């Protein structure tokens, strides 16, 4: 028998004062209600109620069991109401993972605006350039750069991510400006440790229109400064130490201010898609669906340089 139903019937018998009334509440026969009570007593090995032809009363064990049943059933109702609330309106915590640069410069401001709109939602944002398994790590959503590889996830493209090559004017004044990727072998490059040391910088070969859309080749950079964080490489470039290849969104303000100068523009890597990934779920909670819709709308129509 359903143990929770048996507990509900037991509580109803106590509160309504009769087996018949409890049976009517649960739309069953009095004989079936009595079977539930006997099933509980058999499971517990205790008599819960003293029964006479006129009335029934709780035993000491029955009184203690009744108190615990009330608490358990109330907790279950509260849990169900909480789950229902999550389904009806955006609330709860969203766990999101993103690459460091996009997450810091583009996604974080969008999250702040989303949270202003939906005050019952909280966000935990984990920034890492190491790709983790979305489901195994229990994230609700991930932002990935490049073409999605996991077809089991829903993918929503929200923009493009452009890498650019820059150097400080002081560096170029001292060392000259490279004209082709092959010239990088004679320069100090600021390298990103998450990229493969075997392939190095994957650059266009100049056939495109300046956005890397032509053929691409790998150029292992000459590097004395290697870091796992784009901000660190940016600071080294600003200090005039070398040439940096990093996302445009990280370097754009320095370029506008003249602190960094774009170089090798015809050879920049091809822009890659920025994609939201999340598990397929026909009953996705509003906190996820509203966030996805918000972010898609936020980045829709923006220029394709991330």
Automatic annotation (TrEMBL):
InterPro entries (UniProt xref):
LysR-type_TF_proteobact-type (IPR058163), LysR_HTH_N (IPR000847), LysR_subst-bd (IPR005119), WH-like_DNA-bd_sf (IPR036388), WH_DNA-bd_sf (IPR036390)
Q: Which UniProt keywords apply?
A: DNA-binding, Transcription, Transcription regulation
Q: Which domain of life is it from?
A: Bacteria
Q: Does the keyword DNA-binding apply?
A: yes
Record domain HTH lysR-type: where: 1-59
Q: Which family does it belong to?
A: Belongs to the LysR transcriptional regulatory family.
UniProt protein name: HTH-type transcriptional regulator PgrR
Q: What is the lineage of its organism?
A: Bacteria, Pseudomonadati, Pseudomonadota, Betaproteobacteria, Burkholderiales
Q: Which gene holds the coding sequence for this protein?
A: pgrR_8
């Amino acid at each position: 028998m359903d143990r929770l139903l048996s507990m509900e019937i037991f509580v109803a018998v106590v509160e309504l004062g009769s087996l018949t009334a409890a049976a009517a509440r649960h739309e069953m026969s009095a004989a079936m209600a009595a079977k539930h009570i006997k099933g509980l007593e058999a499971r517990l090995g205790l008599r819960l109620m003293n029964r006479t032809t006129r009335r029934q009363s709780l035993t000491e064990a029955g009184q203690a069991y009744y108190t615990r049943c009330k608490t358990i059933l109330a907790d279950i109702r509260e849990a169900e109401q909480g789950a229902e609330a999550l389904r009806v309106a955006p609330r709860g915590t969203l766990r999101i993972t993103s690459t460091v640069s996009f997450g810091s410069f583009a996604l974080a401001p969008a999250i702040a605006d989303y949270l202003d709109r939906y005050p019952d939602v909280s966000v935990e944002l984990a920034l890492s350039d190491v790709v983790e398994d979305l489901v195994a790590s229990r994230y609700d959503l991930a932002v990935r750069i490049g073409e999605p590889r996991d077809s089991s996830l829903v993918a929503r493209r929200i923009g493009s991510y452009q890498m650019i090559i820059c150097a400080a004017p002081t560096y170029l004044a001292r060392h000259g400006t490279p004209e082709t990727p092959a010239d990088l072998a004679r320069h100090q490059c600021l390298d990103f440790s998450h990229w493969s040391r075997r392939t190095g910088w994957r650059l266009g070969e100049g056939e495109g229109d300046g956005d890397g859309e032509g053929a691409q080749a790998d150029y292992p950079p000459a590097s004395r400064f290697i870091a796992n964080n784009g901000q660190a490489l940016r600071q080294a470039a600003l200090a005039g130490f070398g040439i940096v290849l990093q996302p445009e969104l990280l370097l754009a303000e320095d370029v506008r201010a003249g602190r960094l100068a774009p170089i090798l523009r015809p050879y920049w890597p091809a822009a890659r898609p920025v994609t939201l990934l999340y598990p397929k779920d026909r009953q996705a909670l509003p906190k996820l669906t509203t966030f996805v819709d918000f972010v898609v709308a936020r980045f829709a129509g923006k220029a394709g340089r991330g």
